[in-house]
Amino acid sequence: RRTRTPASASCHAASDPAQVRALLERHGDIMLVVVDLDAGSPDGNLDLLKRLRVAMAWARLPAIVVVPPADARLRTILEQHSVSDYLTKPVDGRAIVSRAQSVMAR
């Protein structure tokens, strides 16, 4: 699914890690990946983050992860996967836009 964001940037949605990888391969202009760790398979989503970091083309691609609240061990796991930032659920729309802008400005 493709939508337009208020900042006129394209937004692509994928429901599993394989679809994310396919989108990345098809669209060379992706500037940010947002992963919901609670959606689908958490292990598959962590594997996706790991693959992004070892793939030369996507190693520097910023990634924001949305995590369930009150899971203290996740911070260490996310740092090991070089996650750019994370948000806990429920996510405020303004907060994710602000974090995305901050991460992409780095």
Keyphrases for this structure?
106 residues; 3-stranded parallel β-sheet; alpha/beta; two-stranded antiparallel sheet; globular
What is the element layout, followed by pairings?
Elements: E1 2-4, E2 10-12, H1 17-26, E3 33-36, H2 42-54, E4 63-67, H3 73-80, E5 85-88, H4 93-105
Strand content: 15-25%
- Judged by helices, strands and strand pairing, the structural class is alpha/beta
- Give the total of beta strands: 5
End-to-end C-alpha gap: 27 Å
Identify low-pLDDT runs. Answer: none
Mean pLDDT: 81
Describe it.
The chain is α/β, with parallel strands linked by helices and 106 residues long. The model has no long low-confidence stretch (mean pLDDT 81). The longest helix is centred in the middle third of the chain and has 13 residues, at 42-54. A hairpin with a 5-residue loop joins strand 1 (2-4) and strand 2. The strands form two sheets. Strands 3-4-5 form a three-stranded parallel β-sheet, sandwiched between helices. The chain has helices spanning 17-26, 42-54, 73-80, 93-105, and strands spanning 2-4, 10-12, 33-36, 63-67, 85-88. The chain is built from four helices and five strands. Helix content is 42%, strand content 18%.
Quick structural overview:
The chain is of the alpha/beta class and 106 residues long. The chain contains four helices and five strands, in the order ββαβαβαβα.
